[in-house]
């Protein structure tokens, strides 16, 4: 019997056997660039037929009535339809967090239907995009909130395949319902019949023609191309939202793991010194905060402009950098024992409390500056940013009380939404115009050029001006547009029967 020979010591070891199915490789069905633990991919999943049908209907409605370039009720209409189809066709009801996200998104999309200020409309639409897609994608960590708004640009390939598999199952599904292709064909034939006979009826009767003009927007070749693109965009919103709701990525799994805690003295010493510095600033600011105008006027060489400009932006940077410091400290600080938690609460709580005073000081500086030199959009917006930062410091302090912050990312996001909606509720451009008119009544000074650059939101404030100072009405048009372009501010301005050619100017 031959003796057994041992393997050569330098021979390569055999690969261990693979237990279970191997993940698909590049080019194979089911392959994805996302880790399967973060976002598994089902290559056989198909979109429900009713989702595809309703997506086509919403696409037609959106293409006909939503103009992306116009702040109008169209944004709210499309947002409500998208959420209605996505959650109305789902197999479950929205959670309380999802209801909150839906409500916040629709409230933000309602702002372009109420106010005409373009800068505010763009901010609200951007915030609605952030909140809406974060709601559909799910997740509670900072990673989920930052990643969620980018998912629409990462899912087109999945959505196309998901939809194509739904369309490739024949003309009639198992329940006897017509296939989507047949529905599209019938819809096209119906549209052609409506256009042909509607045109004939409109040419035959002026009253019917006016009705058609009011219900349907004007058409031209370029406009038709734009509306097709808008319709495709709306269809993608519905299908993309439906896909995310049924095949959600696990964005929380992508969050970085918690780093090992470092010794307390390594983070406590710098933070304690920073606390002392903040406390010193707060003590000095006590005189300033309660001094008001007397402090500015009683200090040699100090003007309102210097007081605000030399301090406000620095304090805004202080608030932002403080959030960065707190985020680092919270990640590296130990909280295993009761003394560790007490030390963290004391130092972080002190920094949060003094940071709120810094926020109040910055707002105070800017408010005095506006009272002296007039209100403007930029000054009001930065005050709103400071208010949001102050709310963030309060939320961080509350999270430190029980040493749990799983709710903090969502709370910070919705604090920003509340701040933006509060700003919209103030009707900022009208408020700015009102304050400038008040200042004109007291001092006789009025920034004519600046008020002319504002939107029709300022119309009620300009109506308060005396007869020798006429309000600019160049934005008031007799044509209010079709219903899908409705905007409350523009509609009210169009009702004004004053001249549409006289612009704001000083009288003799």
TrEMBL record:
Pfam families xrefs: DUF4153 (PF13687)
Keywords linked to the UniProt accession: Membrane, Transmembrane, Transmembrane helix
UniProt-listed InterPro entries: DUF4153
Domain of life: Bacteria
Transmembrane segments: 73-90, 102-130, 142-162, 183-204, 224-246, 267-292, 312-334, 346-368, 380-399, 406-426
Record protein name field: DUF4173 domain-containing protein
